[in-house]
Specification:
255 residues; alpha/beta; Rossmann fold; 7 strands; seven-stranded mixed beta sheet; binds S-adenosylmethionine
C-alpha cells in the first residue's frame, strides 16, 4: 500500500482463466459506481465530438478486458453508434472474449490487438496511428514506474489536435490513514454486495482473502496528485479529475 518508486508494473498473468470467466462478478464486488463512471466517459466523448464536429470518432481502449456488459469498450460501442474502437490488452484470453462478444455484435467497429504497455514495443504497426480519443478503464495502474511517464507521452503523441485522453485509474491517498480507510471501504463494499447466503460470517477472513487477490494483481498505487502531475507532464493543455470516489479517479486530459 505504500508508493514504491521502483514498482515493476502489474502481474499481467493474473488476467486469465477464472479471472476472465468471472470478470463481471468480480467487478460487481470491487468496482463501486462503475456504471456511473463508464456513462460519464461516454458522455464526455459525445460532448467533445459535438464541440469539435467529429462525426465518427476513432478510439483506442487500453486494457480493454473481455468486452462483457460492464466494460468500457462495450459502453463506447453501444453509446456512440458512429465510433470505431481498437481494444488493446496484454491477455490473450481477455482479447478472445472481447472479440467473440464485440465483433459478433458490432462487426468491424471493434478490433482487438495484443500489446503490453510495460514493453517498449507496445505501438505495433496495426495500432501505431493517431486517434480522436485514447481511453482506459482500470488498467493504467498496472504501469511500471519506469513506463508511466514515457507511456503517457506516447499516448499524447498518438492523439489528434483537439482530441482527449480519458482514463479511470486506481489510486490512493498520500495520507496513510486515509489510504487505509479507502482500502477498507472498498473491501466493505464487496462484502455488502454479496448475497447474505454467500457472505462469510467472518469479515476479517473475507478481508484477508481480498487482500491476497489484490496482491496477486499487484496494482502500482500512487496518489491522484501524482497521476495529475504525470499526465500534465506529458504535454496536455488541460487536465483534471472529473470524478473521484475512494480508490479511483476519472482523469480528463485535453490536447
Ligand atoms: C480491471 S481490467 C479492466 C477491463 C476493462 N477496461 C473494463 O472496462 O472493465 C484490467 C485489464 O488490463 C489488462 N492489463 C493488465 N496489465 C496490462 C498491460 N501491462 N498491458 C496491457 N493490458 C494490461 C488486463 O489484462 C485486464 O484486461
Amino acid at each position: 500500500m505504500v508508493d514504491n518508486e521502483t514498482h515493476p508494473g502489474g502481474n499481467k498473468d493474473y488476467w486469465q482463466d477464472d479471472t476472465v470467466k468471472k470478470y463481471e462478478y468480480q467487478q460487481a464486488l470491487t468496482s463501486e459506481k462503475k456504471a456511473e463512471r463508464l456513462s460519464l466517459i461516454v458522455r464526455m466523448i459525445q460532448h467533445f465530438c459535438n464541440m469539435n464536429s467529429i462525426s465518427s470518432p476513432s478510439i483506442l481502449d487500453i486494457g480493454c478486458g473481455p468486452g462483457s456488459a460492464t466494460t468500457l469498450s462495450k459502453y463506447l460501442l453501444e453509446g456512440i453508434p458512429e465510433c470505431s474502437v481498437i481494444g488493446i490488452d496484454s491477455s490473450e484470453q481477455m482479447l478472445e472474449a472481447a472479440a467473440s462478444r464485440l465483433c459478433a455484435e458490432y462487426g468491424d467497429r471493434f478490433s482487438g490487438y495484443k500489446a503490453n504497455f510495460n514493453n517498449l514495443d507496445f505501438w505495433k504497426p496495426e495500432i501505431d496511428r493517431e486517434y480522436n480519443f485514447i481511453v482506459s478503464f482500470a488498467s493504467m495502474h498496472y504501469l511500471s514506474d519506469k513506463r508511466i511517464k514515457p507511456f503517457l507521452k506516447e499516448i499524447y503523441e498518438h492523439i489528434v489536435d483537439n482530441g482527449a485522453f480519458i482514463a479511470a485509474i486506481g489510486n490512493h491517498s498520500d495520507g496513510r490513514r486515509i489510504a487505509e480507510m479507502e482500502h477498507l471501504f472498498r473491501i466493505e463494499f464487496g462484502y455488502n454486495q454479496l448475497e447474505e447466503s454467500r457472505r462469510p460470517p467472518d469479515f476479517q477472513a473475507f478481508k484477508a482473502r481480498h487482500e491476497e487477490t489484490d496482491k496477486k494483481a499487484d496494482i502500482n498505487w500512487h496518489s491522484p496528485e501524482k497521476w495529475l502531475q504525470s499526465i500534465r507532464g506529458a504535454g496536455f493543455e488541460e487536465v483534471d479529475i472529473v470524478f473521484h470516489l475512494l480508490l479511483s479517479s476519472v482523469f480528463l486530459a485535453l490536447k
